[in-house]
Amino acid sequence: MNRIFSGVQPTGNPHIGNYLGAFRNWVALQDSYDAIYCIVDLHAMTIDYDPADLEKTRIDAAKILLAAGVDPDRSLLYTQSQVPAHAELAWILGTMTPMGVLNRMTQYKDKTEAGHASNLGLYAYPVLMAADILLYRANLVPVGDDQRQHLEMTRDLAERFNNRFGDIFPIPDAYIPETSARVMSLQDPTAKMSKSDVNVKASISILDDPDVVRKRIKSAVTDSDPIVRYDTDDKPGISNLLEIMGACTGRSVEDLADEYADSGYGVFKEAVAEALVEELTPIREAYKSLSNGDVRQVLHTSGEKGRDLAAPLMREVRKAVGLKGY
Ligand code: ATP
Ligand code: LTN
Questions:
Q1: Distance CA 127, CA 175 (A)
Q2: CA 129 to each of CA 5, 8, 135, 180: distance values in angstroms, whole numbers, following the listed order
Q3: Cβ–ligand 1 contact at 43 (below 6 Å)
Q4: What is the reported pTM?
Q5: How far does the centroid of ligand 2 lie from the alpha carbon of residue 138, in Å?
Q6: Binning pLDDT at 50, 70 and 90, where does residue 196 land?
């Protein structure tokens, strides 16, 4: 079976962008792939954080993924720091990553411009991400649209490594969904919905109560022309809501736009909110039924399996680069 790998940073409250753009596909792809899912705690350390919070957000992220349907009997779910080979492979890949390539990565620029302190970890973030993926010889990486550039860099690094040291890594493909790959902020529909947005009205968390979901959709920024139409340039707010509803109902945005064209924004927004409530309710309920102890057990078992899976690949890599052990 082909392998998929993906990761999420334990940096706060996961939102519907994370769910519709990524987690939902992680769950669906378990049927046809050997799946490895990782809470990337080493990545989360690249911006200012509180160690006590990190423990909570790691468990919470894992609990949300289990509640959403990641099945620990079929897939691995663990934290990156449990498998030290992620960091070792990142170092090796870092020695073959040109500075020019890292200078072109937009995330470092975006984060430092947003006020995050610059540090080597933040700069080298994409190299660690490449190591995550290549460590398990993943073929497919389900992510949201914002990870496109990192995936391109991962493919280039795999090729660079293979050309120099022999064919060790498959070249991984990104799996980016057609709708909802970039869920936008509800307050500024030209910006991505983000965990770090200080405006609480801009996003909906996966665990938000139905009333909060309804309130947030109701106050979503739209435009003054009352026609519901999919047009990301002229009507980014309405288009975002159409994408959210499309992802929740399995209907195309065109089909939904036809149905709600003349119904008025109020009625349309109510329908979007109900579709979202229906999608999120089972997850919220499953989340409540999971204990932190259950989650720790899953992480522990998967972490062991991850270390076992990574060991033979790392032996091959060490040998290929001239670091054969004694
Ligand atoms: P955020 O911007 O919300 O802080 P992030 O991009 O830093 O999130 P993660 O939480 O690690 O990072 O993202 C987990 C997954 O969710 C990734 O695959 C990412 O591409 C996807 N994702 C994040 N935001 C969105 C969004 N607004 N729409 C669709 N997918 C998203
Ligand atoms: N950078 C990703 C998280 C991430 C990831 C990965 C995703 C870290 N390592 C490997 C896919 C594969 C983000 O969503 N911010």
A1: 19
A2: 11, 11, 10, 22
A3: no
A4: 0.97
A5: 13
A6: confident
